[in-house]
Design goal:
The protein is of the alpha/beta class. It has two domains: 267 residues, Rossmann fold (3-Layer(aba) Sandwich); 86 residues, formyl-coa transferase, domain 3. It has 17 helices and 13 strands. The model has no long low-confidence stretch (mean pLDDT 96).
């Protein structure tokens, strides 16, 4: 069902690395035909991001590029630029992650493509956005975690700042770009006209900092690093057990009472230091010490079982291997097999949404570099002679 949402739509993907490819992979999961335009010989940078790898193929590239066709085009050659223009003229969406102004210099800006395809939804992803003094600078996820303050709130007080392990700004930007493209397609459905939409790593990072920004504006106090905790409620962090850690999340007084009951610490409920959420936040360190007095003597599994029986939200701290092997994760079916040539046990993380109780069944393995060049060009009306000519000039690979 989900794989029919964008069936019949063609997307030209001029992006690489993480944010753009994650966006176009989502569009492919929703049924769009995605044509990934890559540099001859090298392709997407992530093809070279290894280890880790699957039988010589970059695990990062494989994670972000299913349901796509790959063509090799040299945008440094006029014929290569014209080929992309021809693709744009015959497509519904074009997305790029070039620095602001670069696409326009090539003749691939929105105005140029809108002139040949007024229905085209054109998406530009950038690091710092299309305006401002830093607009032309490059950017990567950890760089933007530093710029937007995400790193300043991550880790333990007194330790050096650390990045969030997942590429939350890159992948978040891919999600915002997807949302913008879907909004553009919806608008086109009523007006018949395409438009330009934008997303940037900077704006995604700022958006993820919304709660911290609101707190600062309210108090003029710069947020501190709290490790696994958050500033507004307690207990709401990791606690040591005899063998590993458990996260306990008590977002209100009722849940705090359940935590106390589950751990056999009912006495804490009558302690004035912990009588309300505000008091618990002020006395967070004392509360953590009191709770760990109990949890540190017990295996994490016993703590989780007792808390869940009492109705208190909690979880063991999993590593990736434990996550994949968990019965609840297996029940979701989200980590699904997608065999590749030479990698029969290859799995992917599927689109994390359902419709009618089912996930998208659009499954096409990530493409080999340039594997669809001739097929795509033939579909545009290029005959064998023209394709050979372009290959001879180096415009295509």
């Amino acid at each position: 069902m989900l794989e029919t949402v964008l069936a019949g739509m063609r997307v030209v993907d001029l992006t690489q690395n993480v944010a753009g490819p994650f966006c176009t992979q989502i569009l492919g999961d929703l049924g769009a035909e995605v044509i990934k335009v890559e540099r001859p010989g090298r392709g997407d940078d992530t093809r070279g991001w290894r280890p880790p790898d699957y039988n010589g193929q970059s695990a990062t590239f494989l994670a972000l590029n299913r349901n796509k066709k790959s063509i090799c085009v040299d945008l440094g050659k006029p014929d290569g630029v014209q080929l992309v223009k021809d693709l744009g003229a015959a497509s519904d969406v074009l997305i790029h992650s070039m620095k602001p102004g670069s696409a326009e210099k090539l003749g691939l800006g929105f105005d140029e493509l809108n002139a040949v395809n007024p229905r085209l939804v054109y998406c530009a992803i950038s690091a710092f956005g299309q305006t401002g003094p830093l607009r032309a600078l490059p950017g990567y996820d950890p760089l933007m975690q530093a710029f937007t303050g995400v790193m300043s709130t991550t880790g333990n007080e007194g330790d050096d700042p650390v990045r969030v392990g997942v590429s939350l700004i890159d992948m978040g930007t891919g999600m915002w770009a997807t949302l913008a493209i879907l909004a553009g397609l919806t608008r086109r459905g009523t007006t018949g006209k395409g438009l330009m939409v934008e997303a940037s790593l900077l704006e995604t990072g700022i958006t993820w900092m919304s709660v911290f920004i609101a707190g600062y504006l309210a108090t003029k106090k710069v947020p501190k690093k709290l490790g696994s905790a958050i500033a507004v409620t307690a207990p709401y962090e990791l606690f040591r057990c005899a063998d590993q850690h458990v996260f306990i999340a008590a977002g209100n007084d009722g849940l705090f009472a359940r935590v106390c009951q589950g751990l056999g610490c009912e006495r804490l409920m009558s302690d004035a230091r912990f009588a309300s959420n505000s008091a618990r936040v002020v006395h967070r360190a004392e509360l953590r010490a009191e709770i760990e007095e109990t949890t540190s003597r017990l295996p994490a599994g016993d703590v989780v079982a007792a808390l869940r029986k009492a109705g208190a939200p909690c979880s063991e701290l999993h590593d990736v291997a434990q996550l994949i092997d968990h019965e609840q994760v297996r029940a979701t079916g989200l980590i699904s097999p997608l065999p590749l040539d030479g990698i029969p046990d290859h799995h992917v993380v599927a689109l994390p949404i359902k419709a009618g109780g089912k996930r998208s069944s659009a499954w096409k393995a990530p493409p080999a570099l340039g594997s669809d060049t001739d097929f795509v060009l033939s579909g545009l009306g290029y005959d064998a002679g023209k394709i050979a000519e372009l290959r001879g000039t180096g415009a295509i690979g």
